[in-house]
Specification:
Helices cover 24% and strands 26% of the residues. It is an alpha+beta fold. The protein has helices at 27-40, 52-60, 137-142, 146-152, 161-172, 180-185, 219-233; strands at residues 4-7, 14-17, 42-45, 74-75, 78-85, 117-124, 132-136, 156-159, 189-192, 194-196, 203-205, 211-214, 239-242, 249-253, 257-261, 272-278. The strands form four sheets. Strands 1-2-3-14-6-16-5-4 form an eight-stranded mixed beta sheet, with helices on one face. Strands 13-7-15 form a three-stranded antiparallel beta sheet. It binds N-oxalylglycine and manganese (II) ion (MN).
Length: 284
């Protein structure tokens, strides 16, 4: 079957039509999907049905898995998969993280070698709400005035998982504290604010919701600076909003996109998703 690539937005994103992700992709099929991913930043596959094994197998084609630092929302027996969900088990314990990613971010930017990409599979979705917004950081970089490109290229942002965790915990009140071990595993790290994509050679702005400081800048000033940059990067012309259908698989490139989950009525509806994450390189 021939594969069709259909753009989702003027700036980035594409739907890939004609691929069944539950089956191993042939070399040519894989090359087409890989190219689409590098060219479009996020790719969407509709009407998929994936077991955890099939999901992991597709993910592994792009690189080794990154295991999430927080252990309780990993899928039992499949630590490579995290559960984004408001479902609960028979004892009323959450099966996954209900309020995942409700702020602009690039997954695992708090690691010394942040994630290459993430593959989110929608098992069950609410009839309204719960969309995910994506922003192209290539498009945002390209739109910067030349002198701003130059000044940002000299700067580094500090990324820290724990600061974000506790901020979200205070907001929604549904997150438990991190364990001591989880905190020790995620010390602050810093990355260049402008990074060059290792595979497509384009530059992007790389900050987002785990960046909690700027090297050499006072904290108050840094937070304001990062907020302003966030506002610039998430202007409507750089943003695609994905309205999920059950069976959707979205594979985003964390090196050149950010994303932001939106709310839904979690009392009335279920939103249940599985995510794999692919290890990436040190940003340069
Ligand atoms: C994630 C995430 C967004 C969403 O899984 O990385 O941020 O809309 N989720 O569930
Ligand atoms: Mn995320």
């Amino acid at each position: 079957m021939t594969i069709e690539i259909r753009p989702l937005h003027d700036a980035f994103g594409a739907e890939v039509i004609g691929v069944d992700l539950s089956q191993p992709l042939g070399a040519e099929e894989f090359a087409t999907v890989h190219r689409a991913h590098l060219d479009h930043g996020i790719i969407l596959f509709r009407d998929q049905t994936l077991t955890p094994e099939q999901h992991k197998a597709f993910s592994r084609r792009f690189g080794p898995p990154e295991i999430h630092v927080v252990s309780w929302y990993r899928l039992p027996d499949h630590p490579e998969i995290i559960v984004v969900s408001n479902k609960k088990d028979a004892e009323g314990r959450p099966l996954g993280l209900e309020d995942a990613g409700r702020y602009w971010h690039s997954d695992m930017s708090y690691l010394p070698t942040p994630a290459l990409g993430s593959i989110l599979y929608a098992v069950e979705v609410p009839p309204t709400g719960g969309a995910t917004m994506f922003a192209s950081m290539h498009a945002a970089f390209d739109a910067l005035p030349p002198e701003r490109k130059e000044s940002l290229a000299k700067m580094r942002a500090v990324h820290h998982f724990g600061s974000r965790w506790y901020r979200e915990k205070d907001k929604a009140g549904i997150r438990p504290p991190m364990t001591k071990e989880e905190e020790e595993k995620t010390p602050p790290v810093d990355h260049p604010i402008i990074r060059t994509h290792p595979e497509n050679g384009r530059k992007s702005i790389y900050t987002g919701g785990f960046s909690m400081g700027v090297v050499g800048m006072a904290q108050d000033e840094a937070l304001e600076f990062l907020d302003d940059l966030d506002a610039f990067m998430t202007q409507p012309q750089f943003v695609y909003t994905h309205e999920w259908r059950a069976g959707d698989v979205v594979f985003w490139d964390n090196r050149c996109t950010m994303h932001h989950a939106t709310v839904y009525d979690a009392q009335k509806h279920t939103r249940h998703m599985h995510r794999t994450t692919i290890k990436g390189d040190k940003p340069v």
